């Protein structure tokens, strides 16, 4: 999966299910690359029904289509003070995501495994229209959009389908691909789509 630079993330619509599942496709060919699915422990699943699904710790696993092997995961942990992290296939933290607390325009910061600034996310986050920038704001690392002119254009049959692109300049850096793709999935599953984020403070759409 990570040898690709452009992905289509397409939500699977399942009635009467709180579980989030996505197909991850090759944006050029439309061929399946893998899937992403949320997991919540039994006790937290029950509490989530009472307190709200954004309150419960959750993990979203991203797996290869070919052999169902784990590629990486994103998780929300904590209750009062939530933290959202990306982990590699071995369970090692490779980065974390945090909504900007005091920003009029909103946005997210991404930190590396040591907590140092890795990139900044700007744009209309909850409308799947945003861009990843290096901390100095000089280089685009990737972007998420609902517009795509490639062969997979016909795949956009619902509002919950979007394309994730990694800048070819970073094609040989799998950690960047995991953090970019992981951010798109985290924003869609682990943060609240109601004008503010649940994982570390408010975050809205850019003007």
TrEMBL record:
<dbReference type="InterPro" id="IPR038595">
    <property type="entry name" value="LOR_sf"/>
</dbReference>
<dbReference type="InterPro" id="IPR025659">
    <property type="entry name" value="Tubby-like_C"/>
</dbReference>
<protein>
    <recommendedName>
        <fullName>Scramblase</fullName>
    </recommendedName>
</protein>
<dbReference type="InterPro" id="IPR005552">
    <property type="entry name" value="Scramblase"/>
</dbReference>
<dbReference type="Pfam" id="PF03803">
    <property type="entry name" value="Scramblase"/>
</dbReference>
<dbReference type="GO" id="GO:0005886">
    <property type="term" value="C:plasma membrane"/>
</dbReference>
<dbReference type="GO" id="GO:0017128">
    <property type="term" value="F:phospholipid scramblase activity"/>
</dbReference>
């Amino acid at each position: 999966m990570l040898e690709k630079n452009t992905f289509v993330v397409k939500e699977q619509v399942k009635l009467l299910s709180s579980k989030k599942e996505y197909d991850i496709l090759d944006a050029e060919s439309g061929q399946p690359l893998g899937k992403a699915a949320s997991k919540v422990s039994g006790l937290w699943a029950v509490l989530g029904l009472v307190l709200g699904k954004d309150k419960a710790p959750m993990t979203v696993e991203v797996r290869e289509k070919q052999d169902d092997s784990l590629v990486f995961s994103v998780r929300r942990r904590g209750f009062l003070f939530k933290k959202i992290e990306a982990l590699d296939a071995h369970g090692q933290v490779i980065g974390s995501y945090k909504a900007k607390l005091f920003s009029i325009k909103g946005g997210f910061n991404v930190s590396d495994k040591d907590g140092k600034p890795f990139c900044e996310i700007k744009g209309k986050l909850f409308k799947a229209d945003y861009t990843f920038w290096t901390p100095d704001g000089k280089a685009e690392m990737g972007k998420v959009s609902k517009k795509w002119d490639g062969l997979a254009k016909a795949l956009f049959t619902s509002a919950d389908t979007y394309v994730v692109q990694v800048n070819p300049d970073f094609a040989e850096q799998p950690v960047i691909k995991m953090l970019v793709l992981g951010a798109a999935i985290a924003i869609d599953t682990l943060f609240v789509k109601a004008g503010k984020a649940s994982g570390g403070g408010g975050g809205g759409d850019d003007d």
